[in-house]
Specification:
- The structure is a single chain.
- Helix 1 crosses helix 2 (84-91).
- The chain has helices at residues 51-66, 84-91, 152-162; strands at 2-4, 15-17, 26-32, 38-45, 70-75, 107-116, 119-128, 137-143, 146-151.
- Strand 6 (107-116) and strand 7 form a beta hairpin.
- The protein has one domain (24-162).
- Helices cover 21% and strands 36% of the residues.
- The protein contains three helices and nine strands; from the N terminus they run E-E-E-E-H-E-H-E-E-E-E-H.
- The protein has a five-stranded mixed sheet, with helices on one face.
- It is of the alpha+beta class and 166 residues long.
- It starts with a strand and ends with a helix.
């Protein structure tokens, strides 16, 4: 980011020049207003990214899990061959046998840590996405005993309708 504090006679405000980011984050964060707006769930949409950004994405998701936040990862990007959910599961020490780091290229997954007494257990659900088939419904955990369906297909259909995509 560059700052140009030289002002002209007619413009006395500083000018800020910056380059747009190479990637974007798409996420939805869900807060529990009854528990002091505590973050309870995050829905992360994967975007095309540089390889060095993958580690920060995985670290961010792992940090959310450690804080007791349920994390859903939706990856519909078909132009690269890596699996951030598989990388996340390997990072937290619980590889998902249904997913590998290389394949499948598109997927949807949800996970959370559940603590019972002094033991913590990772609960995870993953689904391979097939082009031309309906998108899956993910479990979206909002509390220990509250899960709601995150139905991706109607959301996708509405977005296509709103954007006039056929």
């Amino acid at each position: 980011m560059e700052f140009d504090l030289a002002a002209t006679e007619s413009d006395h405000s500083p000018r800020v020049g910056t380059d747009p980011p190479d990637e974007y984050e798409y996420e939805v964060r869900i807060f529990d207003v009854e528990r002091e707006r505590r973050l309870v769930a995050a829905i992360e949409f994967v975007s095309p990214a540089r390889p060095e950004s993958r580690d920060s994405f995985v670290a961010k998701c792992a940090a959310l899990l450690r804080k007791g936040v349920a994390v859903s990862v939706i990856d519909l990007v078909t132009i690269r061959r890596f699996n951030l959910y598989a990388q996340l599961m390997a990072f937290v020490g619980h590889p998902d046998p249904a997913m590998t780091v290389d394949e499948p290229p598109i997927y949807a997954a949800s996970c959370r840590w559940v603590t019972k007494g002094r033991r913590a257990r990772l609960e995870a659900w993953s689904h391979t996405i097939t082009i031309g088939q309906p998108l899956p419904t993910l479990p979206l955990w909002l509390a220990d005993s509250l899960v709601v369906p995150l139905d991706l297909e109607p959301s996708y259909e509405q977005a296509c309708h709103d954007l006039w995509i056929t």
